[in-house]
Amino acid sequence: MSQAGIPQRSRCLRTAVGGGALAAALALSGCTGTPSPPAPSGTSSSQAPSSAATSTPGPAASGSSAPAAGSDSGNAGGNLPQLVENLSPSVVTIFTEGGLGSGVVYSADGLILTNEHVIRGATTVEVGFADGQRVEGTVKASDAVTDLALVQAKRTGLPKPTYQSNLPKVGEGALVLGSPLGFENTATAGIISGLHRSIPGSASNSLSLVDLIQTDAPISPGNSGGAVINMRGEVIGISEAYIPPSSGAVSLGFAIPAATAVDVAEELLANGTAKHAYLGLTPGELTAQIADQLGIREGAGVVVLAADRDGPAGRAGIRPGDVLESMEGVQLTTPEKLLAELRQRNPGDTVGFKVTRGDQSLDIKVDLTDRPANTTTR
User: Fold this and answer.
1) All residues at 6 or more sequence positions from 256 whose CB lies less than 8 Å from its CB, including other chains
2) Core-most of 65, 123, 313, 319, by most CB within 10 Å?
3) pLDDT of 277-322, one tens digit each?
4) Rounded to an integer, what distance in angstroms lies between the CA atom of residue 21 and that of residue 71?
5) Cα Rg, the chain, nearest whole Å
6) What is the rounded CA–CA span in Å between residue 330 and residue 306?
7) Is the separation of the CB atoms in 164 and 236 below 8 Å?
8) How far is it, in rounded angstroms, from Cα 103 to Cα 153?
9) Which of these, 319, 322, 330, 317, lies nearest to 286 by C-alpha position?
10) Which tens digit of pLDDT belongs to each residue from 315-340?
11) Considering all CA atoms of the chain, what is the largest pairwise distance in Å, rounded to the nearest integer?
12) d(Cα 236, Cα 375) in Å, to the nearest integer?
């Protein structure tokens, strides 16, 4: 156990949150304690331990579809048992050598959508279903930038849920299905707490923790890759991360919007990779100390810690020590804000930056390119 009380696995990310204002530890929720030994491939396993938060598994997966959008839109309290029963066959547990996570059926022929950090380093996994069956799965493609991956399970006739293309509204009900801490087929409930969230302090470790949905429905280690569902039975997000109670947080969970997940999944299916706009620099927080060292006044902006000379920013004339004040008129208050804005751009786009360099104010145009493989800059 860590000092923060979070089980540590190789795929568990911990980082300071909030530039010192919050000494919170952020955890990607795919990491968990060692799961019970997987049953042999293709055989049934015993159900996970029962608890107040663990739902009764739904019917065996079949070729029928999960509820269509707009169906059974009753109040949250009266609707939840039926939603859990209907959607459980569409949510799976993914077992790897290092731990476990969750996943959501993406197509009836056995394609499963999950988080990249759940399957990182693996080529084969085991996929457990709500009816107890476990089968072999092969990692088909993954994208570390958005933390999404596709796994091909050796099972067909699966019920694909409806993926919502629009963002949910703050305040509407949310149901989280997954396998927290190895408790398979667990359901937790709450509301959508916020939209377009970026995790402060995460940019130095991850590109994925931006433009997220926030929910107070409990998310724990093992939920990663599972489904966040609205009260109409539609998938509105893929569980991604949480801030643990040991940091003072109360039900702060985060999910990748379903529209983002579907866009990336379709790219992965078509090309094996997903394209992302690349700037070619390492952003940092503009602290009072850094501002003093640079001889500029403290204020909003993102400091350039490093710039690839052969990358888009370097070729445009951006240098280490420059402060990026805005991008296309949008104020850049944090490195995470920069990453979120880049997420909205495509390779080939030209974007304008307002840059502070000492006592100079510069306007610099940058031609974004496709992100190279295995690069560490943004």
Assistant:
1) 146, 147, 148, 208, 212, 213, 237, 238, 240
2) 313
3) 999 999 988 888 887 787 777 677 899 999 999 999 999 999 999 9
4) 44
5) 21
6) 22
7) yes
8) 11
9) 322
10) 999 999 999 999 999 999 889 999 99
11) 69
12) 30
